[in-house]
Structures are given as structure tokens and as C-alpha cells.
Design brief:
Elements: E1 2-7, E2 10-15, E3 17-20, E4 26-28, E5 42-47, E6 53-58, E7 61-62, E8 75-77, E9 89-91, E10 100-108, E11 111-121, E12 131-136, E13 141-149, E14 154-158, E15 168-173, E16 180-188, E17 192-193, E18 196-201, E19 206-207, H1 217-224, H2 228-239, E20 244-250, E21 253-259
Parallel strand pairs: 3-11
Antiparallel strand pairs: 1-2, 4-9, 5-6, 5-10, 6-7, 8-9, 10-11, 12-13, 13-16, 14-18, 15-16, 17-21, 18-19, 20-21
């Protein structure tokens, strides 16, 4: 949604809300009526909630003496575009702490004005590919997944007939990056296990389904059975001679089937 705001003959074009992704750049848009003479141009970006300075431009150059340390070496203006009325701020890379409201303030010979833009953090959005662990004893099979991401997800376990399953879930607010660490498991009593694990990222409308291939059984088999995963499977085969892993296709999706 775009907003047009007019202050003292300066026209602003802005996005009300922008969703950013962890580790990638975000551009906060701010445009004004330009003046070819930049000698009087002052551009200041601040956090709206605490007024900390994010980036400043005056005397025809960046002036970052008052810049918040949290944004050191992460912000820039499009200097060559200032004469065209573009005061947009680039933040690179973006982290969870960058979420919030930003105030863009510009003054030049034609007037002064300000506008607000909200930055939503979708991190990482982009949850990491879930890591699979399988624990087997004489009566049950426990399938466990671990993943990291942002924001806190909705977790869904589905059975063979798409029915909701009861599961165990642990969520930790991990590290200084602000990522959530998710560990979730499902314990099955029957000898054949066909399940789907899905962490849902509502900010980016991302559903990362696991135990189901995004393209084909053969590609999924290559991805899952590579690296540390194949070592774990080999361990299970050597310890449980009657444990069988197979890939099965159903309605265009690919499932991992565990049979004891």
C-alpha cells in the first residue's frame, strides 16, 4: 500500500510497511521534491520509538558521528539519486532487531517534511531446512526435526491421511541474532510411519514441508540421504536389521516411509 504525504511543498512517496529477510538488504523508500542545489539538503533517518540516529546526510556528504552503533557499516543512501529526490535508506544486512518504525526527515530549499515507514522482519525469515533424527526402540518410532528461523512458527504434524497428530514441541529464543530454535518430535506406536512436519512462517507465507519433496522423489532422496543424514541411517541399519526406509509417492508428493 502506498501513501502520499505533502508537507510544505515537498511530496513524499513511501511504503507503509516493508517485510525484510534476515541476512539480505532492505530498502526503506522515501522520496521528495528535488532541488538541483544540494548545499541546503539535509536527510536524517531515525528510529521512531527512541529517536536513535540511523543515518545522516548534510553539507553534501554522509555525517555519521551520531549514528547508532547497531547500524555501523550497515546503512547507505543512494547519493547519486539525491538530486532526483530519492532519500531511500538501504540497510544491509537486516537482522531481527531492525524491526520497527523508521522516520525519514528531509529539508531543502523547497521545504521540509517527514514520513514514517514500518520494517517487519520475516527472517530469516526463511527457516533452515529441518534436520531429521529418528529414534527406534522395540515398541515405538520417534521422528524428530530441528530447525532455526524467525518469527516464531506455527508447527503442524500431519498423518498419512492428513489428520493432525499430537506432538512434542520445544522453542528457544536462540542467540543474539534473535532466531528461534525449534525442536519437535512425534512418537508413533505402529510399525509404519508416514508423517509430514511443517513449520509455517506467517510473515512470508512460507510453509516448509518436510518428509515431502518439493519437486521429485529422486531429488528429495539425494538431499536427505547426503552428508550426516546417510551416516545416521547407516547406523540405524546396522543396529536394527529389521528397520526399512523407503520413498513412496502419493498424490504427487513424496513421503519417507519407516517400517520396523
Amino acid at each position: 500500500k502506498r501513501w502520499l504525504i505533502l508537507f510544505h511543498n515537498i511530496l513524499w512517496l513511501m511504503w507503509k510497511c516493508l517485510v525484510a529477510i534476515r541476512g539480505r538488504p532492505a530498502v526503506l523508500g522515501c522520496e521528495f521534491t528535488p532541488d538541483s542545489d544540494l548545499s541546503s539538503l539535509v536527510v536524517t533517518w531515525q528510529r521512531q520509538e527512541d529517536s536513535q540516529v540511523i543515518h545522516s546526510f548534510y553539507y553534501q556528504q554522509d555525517n555519521l558521528d551520531r549514528q547508532s552503533p547497531e547500524y555501523h557499516n550497515r546503512t547507505s543512501l543512494y547519493i547519486s539519486e539525491l538530486g532526483k529526490g530519492n532519500a531511500s535508506l538501504r540497510i544491509n544486512p537486516v537482522g531481527p532487531k531492525d524491526a520497527g518504525w523508521y522516520l525519514c526527515q528531509v529539508s531543502n530549499a523547497k521545504g521540509t517534511g517527514k514520513a514514517l515507514i514500518e520494517l517487519d522482519y520475516g527472517g530469516v525469515s526463511l527457516y533452515s531446512e529441518p534436520r531429521l533424527n529418528i529414534h527406534v526402540n522395540s515398541t515405538t518410532v520417534t521422528v524428530q526435526f530441528e530447525t532455526e528461523g524467525f518469527p516464531k512458527p506455527e508447527v503442524i504434524w500431519l498423518g498419512e491421511n492428513n489428520q493432525n497428530l499430537s506432538y512434542h514441541l520445544e522453542i528457544y529464543n536462540q542467540t543474539e541474532d534473535g532466531l528461534y530454535y525449534i525442536k519437535s518430535s512425534y512418537e508413533a506406536q505402529k510399525p509404519v510411519v508416514i508423517v509430514t512436519f511443517t513449520p509455517k512462517n506467517h510473515l512470508l507465507n512460507q510453509n516448509l514441508q518436510t518428509l515431502m519433496a518439493s519437486e521429485s522423489c529422486s531429488r528429495w532422496s539425494t538431499e536427505v540421504l547426503s552428508g550426516h543424514a546417510i551416516y545416521f541411517f547407516s547406523f540405524l541399519f546396522s543396529r536394527y536389521n529389521d528397520l526399512i526406509f523407503s520413498l513412496s509417492r502419493h498424490n504427487g508428493s513424496c513421503f519417507l516411509v519407516i517400517t520396523t
